[in-house]
Amino acid sequence: MNPKHFIIPVFIPELACPFQCIYCDQRKISGKINIPSENDVVETLITHLETIPSGMHIELGFFGGNFTGIPATDQEKYLKIAQPFLSNGSIQSIRLSTRPDYINQEILDVLKKYKVGTIELGAQSMDDEVLKKSKRGHTVSDTLQAAKMIRDSGFMLGLQMMIGLPGDSKEKAIYTARKIIEEKAENTRIYPTLIIKGTKLEQLFMEGKYQPLTIEEAIDWSADILEIFEKSSVKILRVGLHPSEGLLDGSDLVAGPFHPSFRELLLTEIWYKKLRNINCIGDHLNIAVNPKELNYAIGYESKNKKWLKTKFKKVHFITNTVLTNRNYEAHCY
In a designed cystine with 235, which of 92, 176, 187, 285 is the match (CB 3.0 to 4.6 A)? Predict the structure, then answer.
């Protein structure tokens, strides 16, 4: 059995990013307002390592948008910090996120030198119209070229996507998911588009030129996309933005489908679509599920159980370790 993965995140915003993606304010999205010093990174590593159970595959992750867009000297400074932790086995790998147009062979050679294992690209969409309207500054072709270079250089590839960007549709989002699979990505992240204060997207929203997805729409799109990924070998690392303080208290959020338990809402919806097919005779319903799926089957705030109680007098969920994934057994009497 493969060991469980744990990523120690370090957020490094690119202060001099020349691109103005209309949705972007990395500092507000990540909840980080300071550029971490070398001591900050070491302290973050040590603090996390003290609490992570043994036997885990631990990675140091440099996030924040465009790691390979910061000055080369700073890239090497951060990568060097990780080397003693790699050498003594405290961590097993490094991963980082960047833009598709911030990849070339020289950059990849440096990352290989410092034992980076995974490169995540912010693909966002595999539709050029969506990228253009979002002012991403790169094309689908740039993403495909960078992905090939990363794979050919021996790195693991991650491709992140966003849903609900200007010009997006559920069909385009599903196409993006299928292209991510086609590009042989090992992992992905699915981020619903939020309107953050101070961004160009806020201006479009205020002018009535952009309407974000509702939480119900975001859940619906994500449910279909998640099931597409689950049928492939692509691992889903995250669905929904990390709930930073500015998002939780609303100080940075203008509008959009944010919920601190977005993934739980999503899995609740997937289970609802399965459980609504139950058709058996009796007033009492017993449903057996895998223990790992129990909370999602019952649903966020018991949503699914409450709905089933409108159909049956008594509803009882039990666990069965023989059942796998979202398979279940329903018995009425």
Answer: 187
Main-chain dihedrals φ then ψ at residue 52, nearest 5 degrees: -80, 130
Per-residue burial over 27-37, b if 16 or more Cβ lie within 10 Å, else e, is bbbbbbeeebe
- 3-state class (DSSP) for residue 281: coil
Count how many residues are written for the chain.
333
Sort 277 into a burial class: Cβ within 10 Å, 0-12 / 13-18 / 19+: exposed
Per the structure, the count of domains in the chain is 2
- Residues 254-278: tens digit of each pLDDT: 999 999 999 999 999 999 999 998 9
For residue 232, the tally of other CB atoms under 10 A from its CB is 15
- Output the six-digit token pair for 269: 């919806």
- Where do runs of H (alpha helix) occur along the chain? 26-30, 38-49, 72-87, 105-113, 128-133, 140-152, 170-182, 200-206, 215-230, 245-248, 262-275, 294-298, 303-308
DSSP of 214-244: PHHHHHHHHHHHHHHHHTTT-EEEEES----
Pairing of strands 328-332, 235-239: unpaired
Give the domain range for residue 300.
Answer: 277-332
Tokens describing residue 99: 């833009």
Residue 272 maps to a domain: no
